[in-house]
User: Fold HMG box domain-containing protein from Luteolibacter yonseiensis.
Amino acid sequence: MGDRGGLGDRERPAQLPQDRPNWSERSQNRNENWNQRVDKRHESMQQRNENRQQRRDDFAKNREDRWDNLEEARNDRQDWRDQNREDWQEHREDMWDYRFDRADEIWDNAGDFYDDVFDDHWWGGCGWGHVGHYPANPWWWWAPVTWAAATTFVYATAPPQPIYIDYGTNVIQEGETVYVDNKPVPAKQYNEPVVNLAVNVEQPAPPAPPTSADKPAEWMPLGVFALAQEEKGEPVMFFQVSISKDGKVSGGYQSVITGDQKPIAGQIDKETQNVAWRIGDNIETVFATTLANLTQDVSTLAIHFGKDRVQNWLLVRMPEPPPADKPAKAPELDRTVPPANPIPVNATTK
Assistant:
């Protein structure tokens, strides 16, 4: 990864890719398709930076007041128990508006500085991943996926209604109780099956592209995600998450502070749609979300530290570099608030 510093340390306009310290290694054995995508990616992110200066300034100026108001409302749990109330709906919309602005901030600061994470060279050099180049699409692992595509890949029968867990809003951890759509469930009863998805699974094979066009894909990439705190701060952890037809989760983890690279391992519970994974052999820290959440540009994620501590974090999809045959275009975040579909009782008491 080289010496990159924090995302927020970047100056705009960003340094050209070929002027960066890792360029000689990153650009080895690349074809013209790759060079065109790198150039268009840089151009598209520059367009984005030029168009968003005022919104960046406004968010930075108002961040503290907005977050204080959200926390005041969220901490007064009695006022938000009825999800049909208009004030609860307004609070949820305000929360998502803030999350979308945070995600935009992360995109702005990251730019194209991390495009070599989870490309084909990254997988070939990590020591346990896909070996070899994939010139047809070096960023195959970055591709986003729709709910329809993900469920068609995973479910043999008709796909279920998507479950978007909004940690801190429709799933709330309070001591020994988890409130799911305002229904109290014992924390152990809710958390243990989710954590076990990551604990009780062997390390799957690394996700690899199909070896030929006539062979069915064994893995579907869900994209590359930055993990960040909801309020502020730059992400220091990135994940590539992929799923197999039998519900296994594989992919990779990269720390931009230490340069640490490890595989991830987990599972999907096809009945509840819960998804959880661990990093390497560390079963004490588990990352939990839902399959539907992983089809979104922005979603919430719960981190389980052992059996007794849970924190809510923000998961932000990083935009895929544009195709070589398409014009450079500034990426735009999908700011659609996910529907608050009911979470089935069996999704919490299975």
About this structure: Residues 7-349 form one domain. DSSP finds eight helices and eleven strands in the chain.
